[in-house]
Design a protein that fits this description.
The strands form five sheets. This protein has a six-stranded antiparallel sheet. Strands 16-15-14-17-18 form a five-stranded mixed sheet, covered by helices on one side. The two termini are 29 Å apart. It is globular. The chain has 14 helices and 18 strands. Among the domains are: 85 residues, Phosphorylase Kinase, domain 1 (2-Layer Sandwich); 206 residues, Transferase(Phosphotransferase) domain 1 (Transferase(Phosphotransferase), domain 1, Orthogonal Bundle), CATH 1.10.510; 74 residues, Nucleotidyltransferase, domain 5 (2-Layer Sandwich).
Length: 523
């Protein structure tokens, strides 16, 4: 879209281009009636031409979600409007930087500054959670810090009402949205979300805030997603030994794989953070502060871990009949998460802060200098689990192999089955001891749609470039194949997320009842 600087949209005169996102360009503007500066997000016309009403509905949804939230730690939306073929949202202009930029330029902050940001971010999620809204994309880029040190959560573009009819919902269960580095396990697997998903993402953000790096990294979105499902995060205390142990426990509890073992509301997180902030202001050791809710959750986690330790590993893994000690890490697998079917890659603190619009007891005046933290060794120095004595006449090779190595084999086997299902890789057949590749017969009873890396759609091999074209082809297929109600959608990892939304919306309009999603290269 061409630069709209000096254009007037309604009562807003665009002064300066501030940046661009996947859906919109952002401008600094003057609201002429009130003579104040605002930020105006202008939807890209190319998105409208490409996807019809789908992206416009999402664009308006962002405004409606955020407009209903009136809280000092949430970016306020003022109005939504249209000027010709341009659709825009006018919202509060925040003079400051996002947390990601601060961390990149200055490194992790001192403890007082970190607690300050954590408290205000938790207060914002408390307000959205009490309104029944799931943000879905909590990350440092969406946490803004003003020059006065006030923290504001922005971008409710992926937000979803927790309660309400599913009819017409643009972010249904089964749709994976968000940013892989910060996505909750249930978000990765496409399950129904509630505010506890935001608590997980906020925990990942806090982890990065306190040590300067995210708990999980990988070369691909899939590699990161699998870690959110199955891998425990590296201990935060090892990443930054200077941190109080109780604060590390709080962050790890926010990132529990099972929702039932996390903090259940942002209010619970905020309550415990306020106690730590008060202790820090008074110069007391944070590790001497008692947090009953955290202790209760830790106790529940230990009980669940004990139950997991009694689980007998599946036959064929090499662990059948052996001790289940150390298998608590399998809790995420036992949490009934389905295999991944889809994933997309979506990119001076010095004020007395109020957390709940009036309570200043949690305010902190942190130091002005933000310190850089050193890199910490990632090696695991824990002793390997003790081996149980062999109670059999048969020779047991377990003492000759480290239990950790056996667990690694087990997880590799589990991951291979998961990835095979995810990418529909057919198992090999053998003939006379020689492995042979098999070709999986094409699925029947469903219309096939593909989106390649150039965002071109193909309906049963027929090319479509626009929403109207794909809708027409889908209706044609629906009418010509009586009784078919399913659609198989394959999306190339390099395609944009909006293309999948477009196909799903067109499929709904064409009368299909079920859409199956896969991510894999489309040639």
């Amino acid at each position: 879209m061409s630069d709209l600087t000096n254009r007037t949209l309604g009562e807003f005169r665009l002064l300066k281009h501030l940046g661009s996102g996947g859906m919109a360009d952002v401008y600094l503007a003057e609201q002429t009636t009130l003579q104040r500066q605002v930020a105006v997000k202008v939807m890209k016309p190319a998105m409208m031409a490409l996807s019809g009403e789908v992206m416009l509905a999402r664009f308006k949804q962002e405004a409606m979600m955020a407009a209903g939230l009136n809280h000092r730690n949430i970016v306020q939306v003022y109005t939504i409007g249209q000027e010709g073929d341009l659709h825009y949202i006018a919202q509060e202009f925040v003079q400051g930087k996002d947390l990601a930029s601060i961390l990149k330029s200055r490194g992790a902050p001192d403890l007082a500054s970190a607690l300050h940001v954590m408290g205000q971010a938790a207060a914002a999620l408390k307000a959205s959670g009490e309104a029944g809204i799931v943000h879905r994309d909590i990350k440092p880029e969406n946490i803004l810090v003003t020059k006065k040190g006030e923290v504001k959560v922005a971008d409710f573009g992926l937000a979803q009402l927790h309660e309400g009819p599913d009819e017409g919902n643009l972010t249904r269960e089964g749709t994976t949205m968000g940013t892989p580095l910060y996505m909750s396990p249930e978000q990765v697997s496409g399950r129904e979300l509630d505010p506890r998903s935001d608590i997980y993402s906020l925990g990942v953000t806090f982890y990065q805030l306190l040590c300067g790096q995210t708990p999980f990294t990988g070369k691909t979105a899939m590699a990161i997603a699998v870690q959110h499902l199955n891998s425990p995060p590296p201990p935060l205390k090892e990443k930054n030994p200077a941190l109080p142990a109780v604060l590390c426990r709080l962050v790890h509890r926010m990132m529990a794989k099972r929702r039932s073992l996390r903090y259940q509301t942002a209010d619970e997180v905020l309550t415990d953070l306020k106690k730590l902030i008060t202790a820090q202001k008074q110069g007391r050791s944070l590790d001497l502060v008692r947090l009953p809710r955290l202790e209760e959750l830790d106790r529940l986690a230990e009980e669940e871990k004990s139950k997991d330790m009694t689980v007998v590993p599946p036959k064929g893994t090499g662990l059948a009949g052996k001790s289940a000690t150390g298998l608590a890490a399998r809790s995420s697998i036992a949490d009934s998460y389905p295999e991944i079917q889809e994933l997309e890659v979506v990119e001076e603190f010095d004020a007395e802060a109020e957390f709940d619009g009036g309570d200043t007891s949690g305010g902190v005046r942190p130091k002005k200098v933000i310190q850089h933290l050193p890199s910490w060794d990632d090696d695991d120095d824990e002793e390997p689990p003790r081996r149980r004595p062999v109670e059999s006449d048969e020779m047991d090779l377990t003492p000759m192999v480290d239990v950790t190595f056996l667990l690694l084999i087990f997880f590799m086997i589990t991951a291979s089955f998961t990835m095979q299902k995810c990418f529909d890789v057919p198992p090999g057949n053998t003939k006379d001891g020689v492995a042979q590749a098999t070709i999986e017969p094409p699925e029947t009873g469903a219309v096939r749609v593909e989106v390649d890396k150039d965002n071109v759609m193909y309906v049963e091999g027929k090319k479509a470039n626009t929403y109207d074209e794909v809708l027409s082809l889908l209706k044609e297929q629906k009418n010509s194949a009586s009784g078919i109600t399913d659609l198989d959608l394959t999306v190339d990892p390099e395609s944009i997320h909006e293309m999948r939304l477009m196909v799903i919306d067109a499929a709904t309009q064409a009368g299909f009842q079920k859409v199956s999603n896969k991510i894999r290269p489309v040639l």
